[in-house]
Amino acid sequence: MSARPHPATPPRTDDEVAGRYRHGPWVPAELYCRLIVEDLRAMAGAAVAPTVLDIGCGHGLMGYPLLQEHIADHAGPCIGIEPDPQAEPSPVFGTLHRVPFEQAPLPAASVDLAYAAMVLEHLPRPAEFFARLAQVLRPGGVFWAFTVDRRHYFSWFSQLIEATRLKERYLDRVRGRKGEAAARYDNYPTFYRCNSPAALQALAGADFTLQCWSLHRVGQLDGYVPYRLRRLSHLADRAVIRLGLPGSVLVARLVRR
How far apart are CA 16 and CA 197, in angstroms? Predict the structure, then answer.
């Protein structure tokens, strides 16, 4: 398949990402969807509608399948990657691969835009993931990553309770039991090996240009904090923002050179 370039998508400003996140009225997934769709619109001058790849598509975009449908409305072929056999991806994906991304039979330079929401923290070998990404993206192609910032205390706490084998019990308490509560997600192993700007820059190498934003807002972690402790977590949120410390969410935009 030809590695045809498409119209260049301009870099994003801090106000477009961090400012909109902190002050916007939407849930985080809505902003993520808007960022993706805006890049797809910038690609609209291409002769062929852009091919989109959702890596980890099984539960919707952050749990919202309707947002995947909105993205599909602005795209050409939509490809999904979902190795979890229990997940049921949206029918918007004309092609679905039930294997890890690194093993998916995708032709070289065949994808215009790829995205992954809450996936990078689960990668045991991120170098293989980004090498494969460099193969499948066309020149000028974009990859959006929405993940956990390992520099924030949330990732430290997550790793601690996982190491002590208390994570499943804790999630049952704050988000409900698996299979009974809609907010309860599968507790996949976490590694946080590419969850900082420095780690991503090393992985981007000469293949990608990289932009990163560390985001936070008051109440961001409410879904993981028992109700009686949320006043304290909100105080911590305000301190993170006021002091300019890394937030709980890391957003990365990589463009294939």
Answer: 18
